[in-house]
TrEMBL record:
It comes from Alkalicoccobacillus murimartini. It is a peripheral membrane protein. Keywords: Amino-acid transport, ATP-binding, Cell membrane, Membrane, Nucleotide-binding, Transport. PANTHER family: AMINO ACID IMPORT ATP-BINDING PROTEIN, GLUTAMATE_ASPARTATE IMPORT ATP-BINDING PROTEIN GLTL. Residues 6-251 form the ABC transporter domain. Pfam families: ABC_tran (PF00005). This is Polar amino acid transport system ATP-binding protein. The lineage of its organism: Bacteria, Bacillati, Bacillota, Bacilli, Bacillales. InterPro entries: AAA+_ATPase (IPR003593), ABC_ATPase_HisP-typ (IPR030679), ABC_transporter-like_ATP-bd (IPR003439), ABC_transporter-like_CS (IPR017871), Ectoine_EhuA (IPR014343), MetN_ABC_transporter-like (IPR050086), P-loop_NTPase (IPR027417). The keyword Nucleotide-binding applies. It is found in: Cell membrane. Belongs to the ABC transporter superfamily. It comes from the Bacteria.
Length: 255
């Protein structure tokens, strides 16, 4: 049996008085494409941010490649289990946000070479070769010398995807990658993500409200509500044959 690349075990997460996750458990296998769906405020972004180490859980285990990210200190405070592992995870996990967050004063190429140079220690030339390869992959090989403002929102989001891919992550996280885009630009971004999913060499966790897209690309769909996983399974099981009223009601909105 292969070891899951990512495991959430009994995750609790509160922001002050607000309890967002009560008991969230999920394993993701290497190469698996998992879409997380659920009502607004149910904690989808928080799950992604915890895996990106941008948020700490309040309890439970987040295990990446067999190693825990955090350990509980005596006073209930979560601290890094191993700083070295945490740094490795940060460079092995790529993230694409709702808003593209490109550096406006840098060319498209430089936007994609900053992290490999400063985090991975690649030479400028190596980083540029990788960046151009990834920009070509997302169909933007001719935009290397442009600035973000000269690109459409869809193109900027494709740059953000290329920028994450340059790091050669083992896991890619997408947090509603098309929700900030005009409707006519959504398709080109989804097509790039679908392409990546079909290559099958990376695990992907997607938070999305694009149900048709989730149906097409996902190996598994996870529905969360009230701070826990309510249902999960193949797209045909979860989206076409929901078992709980909660999921049935949620899916009604997309019909
Ligand atoms: P979703 O992505 O499912 O819409 P989120 O994970 O963004 O949900 O948020 C879950 C809940 O946690 C929301 O009620 C949100 O307001 C709250 N929340 C998220 N981040 C913070 C934060 N940094 N501080 C306080 N509350 C937060």
């Amino acid at each position: 049996m292969t070891q899951p690349i990512v495991q959430f075990k009994g995750i609790k997460k509160s922001f002050d008085e607000l309890e967002v996750m009560k008991d969230f458990t999920l394993d993701v296998d290497p190469g698996e494409i998992v879409s997380i769906i659920g009502p607004s405020g149910s904690g989808k972004t928080t799950i992604i941010r915890m895996l990106m180490t941008l948020e700490k859980p309040s309890g439970g285990d987040i295990i990446v490649e067999g190693e825990n990210l955090w350990k509980m200190e005596s006073k209930g405070k979560m601290v890094p289990a191993d700083e070295k592992h945490l740094r490795k995870v940060r460079s092995n996990v790529g993230m694409v946000f709702q808003h593209f967050n490109l550096f406006p004063h840098m060319t498209i190429l430089r936007n994609c070479t900053e992290a490999p140079i400063h985090v991975l220690g690649l030479s400028k030339k190596e980083a540029e070769t990788r960046a151009i390869e990834m920009l070509e992959k997302v169909g933007l090989g001719d935009k290397v010398d442009n600035y973000p403002v000269q690109l459409s929102g869809g193109q900027q989001q494709r740059v953000a995807i290329a920028r994450a891919l340059v790091m050669r992550p083992k896991v890619m996280l997408f947090d509603e990658p098309t929700s900030a885009l005009d409707p006519e630009l959504v398709g080109e971004v989804l097509a790039v993500i679908k392409d990546l999913a079909q290559q099958g060499d990376m695990s992907m966790i997607l938070v999305t409200h694009e149900m048709d897209f989730a149906w097409q690309v996902s190996d598994r769909i996870v529905f969360i509500a009230d701070g826990q996983l309510v249902e999960h399974g193949k797209p045909s099981e979860v989206l076409d044959n929901p078992k709980s009223d909660r999921l049935r009601n949620f899916l009604e909105r997309f019909r």
